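Table 4 source record.
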Amino acid sequence: MSERKILIVDDNRENLEFLGVLLERYGWESDPADSGAAALRMLEKTHYDIVITDLMMPAMNGIELLGRIKEEFPGVEVVIVTAYGSIPTAIEAIKRGAYTYLLRPFEPEEVALTVKKIFELIDIRSQNSLLKEELSKALKYDKLVGSGLAMQKVYRLIDSVAVTNSTVLVMGESGCGKELIARAIHMKSQRAEGPFVKVSCAALPETLLEAELFGHEKGAFTGAVAQRKGRFELADRGTLFLDEIGEIPLSIQVKLLRVIQEREFERLGGTKTIKTDTRIISATNRNLKEEVEKGNFREDLYYRLNVITIEAPTLREHKQDIPTLAYHFLNRAAAEAGKEINSVSDTALAALAAYDWPGNVRELQNIMERAVVLCRGVAIEMPDLPDFVREPEGAPFVPEELEPREPEAKRAATDYVVTDEPDSGEYLLPLRVAKGAWEKNYIERALAKFSGNISHTADAIEIARKNLQEKIKAYDIDTQKFLGRKTAGD
């Protein structure tokens, strides 16, 4: 849970005691400092949200202290306390960054109202910071897309686990949408209004990862110039997504296990126990059970994390969704680039369906963004795709599987819908796409047989030379690569 702390600065002991008692009455924790220098020393050691300081003090007055605080501790709000005759100076303090000023003698309610407003401002800032992070991620990753059998199973699991507070382990290859699954669970849960906080466990060394998870006090390690809240604190009443959980060192696994079991922890370098109400969703592309057997992952932590498992399917397992995904990424990339590109040619779509996608959905997204950048017309064509997609290794693709019909492929899918319709597990390409893929393959084999000679090829397959040339152009077939080449067995 978040904690609030106030520093009172005044060279008059009675004033310090009066404000301390008043703040305690409203349930706020405060510390006294009898000079500006003492206040700065305390700010270096402890995090304070608010400093309430007298204006007129020897050695360092309130204006000077304000300047030092704004320079060294910019996140701390300052309230100036002054007498009636010093109002012009107090107004000057506001211009220099003070939140407001209080005139002595003041009413207790006035102090309480001022402090409440400041804490509300701090909460809004914190929420805005998280919202900005969420918006940044929303621009990069859209909602789950897909309607095949594999994705339908995922959607049903999401619906089932979202209503619980159980820990969830999402397993799958890189790029197959594990984070999107975690976000979907969060958004469909009762914690949807709370924060969704992500930690990439593979991106940080051990010391920094521990500080990132649990936070740290000022001076906890070299470079810790101020107190910082960890991700568990930021995710309070929300969801913490631990990406690549299999990369966490054993020393941190012990602390993580305690947080899951006890719902409490201490910041790095601190002694105060902090409570947290956070749901944990983790993800990995490793086989954690094998990691347990090898001694790389704690067995007790594995069972704590693995209450519910969701396996994110590879794109190879739901190829029927490739047209839908392709148009989804096309529409978004075209809008961002300000281009009027609204379709994918039959041959390009067939090539996308034929490719094996080792990088999964993320690779498809990147390739569609690249295609939009390169495209000079209103449709993505074969030349807009990378060579390795246009000419995948192995036998040419002969579509035998079922794909969604064209209207389904072209709709701007932004969310999923679970249906009760039976699914055979098979899928069909649109007939014209399947026909195009087969025809291109057939023409290329014929050209290879006749070493790229168009006239001989046209005669052999009984088609007009002009018609063959048109098809070669439409399918973007490079006849030069067949010159002097014979097929096996010829």
